[in-house]
């Protein structure tokens, strides 16, 4: 679970983005009092082992002063290497900075972050977007939670609430009701999401009532296009980071999974949380392996 993570795995490619998120990584290590693992996966056909080792050793040199810090170098495919390292470690937070600071479109590009979000059963921290020269956001006193559809489940809401209670933060439940158009009549057939602002507000209050934790909870509802209304809700709420479900975070496309464009445009921290059932399945597999 997010608030019980005992290891932070920082997957780095030594890019500008990786350097920009170092202060955020340091804050998470301090907040969770967790072990830090600096993980790099290199292509042996393009990079020599000694070169990759030297880059990893010099990256984030201050981390060697932490009580528990390890540097791990793996050869092979990046996605496969990260997956192999993380899939048997349930109590981790995987940190994946965006690979492209410029934000320029890359035709035919398959999102590694989206593939890892789809495959892994651990919380994943990333950024929707970071501008050249900017530092990654590091505060987390106001935790936003995107509550898009009842079918997403409440795993991400519960983990965000646990984290808010543990850190003394405020939990902000966010929802955008679809704008009224010709397709609105189809919505009840395709989704159980509320159809109006009053109904949505009542639904969020019901969700908040299930959170039996000592943390402040605020509800924020708007109506219209999510891509337009969500950034405004985030500004009004003052959210420092946004917790989203695995179902909302990743969308299928004809070239493979991709991060939902709505969240990819956000300039704050994103945490993707998988379903509880996937945590339970992972724990079961680990118990069987240990037996």
Describe the fold and architecture.
With 291 residues, this protein is an alpha/beta fold. It folds into 2 domains: 2-128, HUPs (Rossmann fold), CATH 3.40.50; 142-239, Rossmann fold, CATH 3.40.50. Helices cover 37% and strands 22% of the residues. It has 12 helices and 12 strands. It has helices spanning 16-20, 22-32, 49-58, 78-86, 112-119, 155-167, 187-190, 197-209, 226-237, 246-249, 261-264, 276-290, and strands at 7-11, 35-42, 69-75, 92-96, 124-127, 142-146, 170-177, 216-223, 241-245, 250-251, 258-259, 269-273. It has a 10-stranded mixed beta sheet with strand order 3-2-1-4-5-12-9-6-7-8, with helices on both faces. Strands 10-11 form a two-stranded antiparallel ribbon. The longest helix is centred in the last third of the chain and has 15 residues, at 276-290. The protein is globular, with a radius of gyration of 19 Å. The model is unreliable at 278-283 (pLDDT under 50).
Topology of helices and strands:
Elements: E1 7-11, H1 16-20, H2 22-32, E2 35-42, H3 49-58, E3 69-75, H4 78-86, E4 92-96, H5 112-119, E5 124-127, E6 142-146, H6 155-167, E7 170-177, H7 187-190, H8 197-209, E8 216-223, H9 226-237, E9 241-245, H10 246-249, E10 250-251, E11 258-259, H11 261-264, E12 269-273, H12 276-290
Parallel strand pairs: 1-2, 1-4, 2-3, 4-5, 6-7, 6-9, 7-8, 9-12
Antiparallel strand pairs: 5-12, 10-11
Helix pairs in contact: 4-5
CATH class of the largest domain: Alpha Beta
* Straight-line distance between termini: 23 Å
Average pLDDT figure: 83
Largest sheet: 10 strands, mixed
């Amino acid at each position: 679970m997010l608030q019980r993570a005992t290891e932070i795995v920082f997957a780095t490619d030594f890019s500008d983005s990786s350097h920009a998120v170092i202060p955020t990584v340091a804050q998470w290590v301090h907040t969770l009092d967790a072990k830090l693992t600096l993980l790099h996966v290199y292509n042996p056909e393009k990079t020599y082992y000694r070169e990759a080792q030297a880059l990893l050793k010099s990256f984030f040199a201050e981390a060697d002063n932490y009580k528990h810090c390890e540097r791990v170098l793996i050869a092979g495919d990046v996605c496969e290497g990260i997956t192999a390292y993380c899939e048997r470690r349930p109590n981790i937070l995987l940190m994946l900075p965006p690979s492209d600071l410029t934000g320029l479109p890359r035709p035919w590009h398959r999102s590694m972050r989206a593939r890892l979000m789809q495959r892994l059963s651990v919380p994943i921290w990333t950024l929707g977007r970071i501008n050249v020269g900017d530092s990654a956001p590091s505060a987390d006193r106001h935790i936003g939670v995107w509550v898009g559809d009842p079918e997403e489940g409440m795993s991400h809401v519960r983990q965000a609430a646990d984290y808010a209670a543990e850190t003394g933060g405020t939990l902000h439940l966010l929802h955008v009701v679809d704008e009224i158009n010709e397709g609105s009549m189809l919505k009840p057939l395709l989704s159980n999401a509320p159809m109006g602002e009053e109904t949505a507000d009542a639904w969020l209050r019901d969700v908040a009532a299930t959170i039996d934790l000592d943390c402040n909870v605020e509800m924020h509802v708007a109506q219209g296009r999510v891509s337009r209304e969500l950034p405004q809700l985030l500004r009004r709420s003052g959210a420092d980071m946004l917790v989203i479900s695995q179902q909302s975070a990743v969308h299928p496309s004809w070239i493979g999974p991709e991060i939902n464009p709505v969240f990819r445009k956000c300039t704050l921290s994103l945490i993707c949380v998988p379903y509880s059932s996937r945590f339970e399945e992972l724990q079961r597999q680990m118990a069987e392996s240990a037996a």
